[in-house]
Amino acid sequence: MEGNQSIQKIYSSDWSTIPEMVLVEIMSYLPVHDRVNAGLVCAWWKECFKHPRLWTKFLFKFDTNTPDEAKAISSIDAYCSLLQDVKMYLNPWHSVSRDRAIYALNEMAWSPAKKLKKFAFHFTGFNPIILDSTGILNALKNLFSQSTGTEFLLRLRVIDLTGCNIPFDDELVSIIANNHPYIRILKLQNSCYYYYVTPKSILELVKKCHHLEELDVFCASLDSEVIETLGNDPDCAMKKLRLVCNSKSRSCPAVLSDAWAVLSNHGVQVTIMIESSTPSAIVDEILCENIPLVNLRWDVMYEPDARTMFRIAEQYNNTLRRLEINNGLSTSPATTDFQQTLELIVLKCTKLTHLVVSLPLSANTVGDILDGRYFEEYMLRCFRNDTIESVTNQI
């Protein structure tokens, strides 16, 4: 009897008595529109809805035309000043979602007390064939501009725009350089065909942002002066430099070997991703001596030139840790020259711990590569008995 009374007491309890810590924890797992609805249950739930913890780290998703998205942004006016770590995902196909994302960006920009420390913006899916990206780009520029005093300038540490597939320009980089001297991580690589960030704005960035630790850009955005400026800075904080090389790289001269030599003294780790659209002559210019190259991903339409492979073995034997060569179209064994130079890279580059090669190799080459050598990760394709099989240590 007492047990039944206890159960009845639990079920008749007032929901408004749920402890704040418990209710805030539950709300933190809800999508934004569900959280808004939960805040309408009673005065206590509405008070918990305002808890700073729920707004410190926030994920916006704008990928439908449903009214739920309108609910999600209805509370931005009141709480965007609490946002510190924001990720925003946008489906660019929906004009309503684009407008709502721009609205959210502008509300954050106009907040009188921005506390933003980390910001990421990504597209979900591909861009429409015709997309006017001016509104999104201008909203980003407004967000990063000095509009509300100096506290925001001292807080922002991370900007990740790798999934924001719109044409960035020098003005955007200049705004970041002039307004956020304590920025630590800046990622500007995307999949947009057009890209208007030149070495001029990147030079301004590295001159004014001495705390920059990681920079992700296209090779066309760098020149020797940028690299030398970083190398000659006694307080250089740069740890990771990620570069993408593609057909756009023709528009800018490659960084010279002497400039890389200056930077290599700071312990910077360089990652280079070469897209299949990159002409072989550009690849030869970019892969010069003295680059502190740690990771190399090379997407190829045809088999890589053996001379370039040989240079990789000779020039990066003390730094290279990960090598990835991708060509998913090949169904016949790679040439003897390629397989021999690949073996040479494995032999010379003693720090190499990750090897991914999609070009089919002979069974003898695969055996020679793996014999007595430890790899944290390897994924190879072996041509055996007229069939291709995968050889890997990954589950």
Task: Give the SSE layout.
Layout: H1 2-11, H2 20-27, H3 32-38, H4 43-49, H5 52-56, E1 57-62, H6 67-74, H7 76-79, E2 85-90, H8 95-110, E3 118-123, H9 134-144, H10 151-155, E4 158-163, H11 170-179, E5 185-187, H12 199-208, E6 214-218, H13 224-232, E7 240-245, H14 257-263, E8 269-274, H15 280-286, E9 293-299, H16 306-315, E10 322-326, H17 336-348, E11 354-357, E12 361-362, H18 363-370, E13 377-384, E14 387-392
Parallel strand pairs: 1-2, 2-3, 3-4, 4-5, 5-6, 6-7, 7-8, 8-9, 9-10, 10-11, 11-13, 12-13
Antiparallel strand pairs: 13-14
Helix pairs in contact: 3-6, 8-9, 9-11, 11-12, 12-13, 13-14, 16-17
Give a structural overview:
The protein is α/β, with parallel strands linked by helices and 395 residues long. Helix content is 39%, strand content 19%. It has 18 helices and 14 strands. It has helices at residues 2-11, 20-27, 32-38, 43-49, 52-56, 67-74, 76-79, 95-110, 134-144, 151-155, 170-179, 199-208, 224-232, 257-263, 280-286, 306-315, 336-348, 363-370; strands at residues 57-62, 85-90, 118-123, 158-163, 185-187, 214-218, 240-245, 269-274, 293-299, 322-326, 354-357, 361-362, 377-384, 387-392. Strands 1, 2, 3, 4, 5, 6, 7, 8, 9, 10, 11, 12, 13 and 14 form a 14-stranded mixed sheet that branches. Helix 17 (336-348) links the parallel strand 10 and strand 11 (354-357). It is globular.
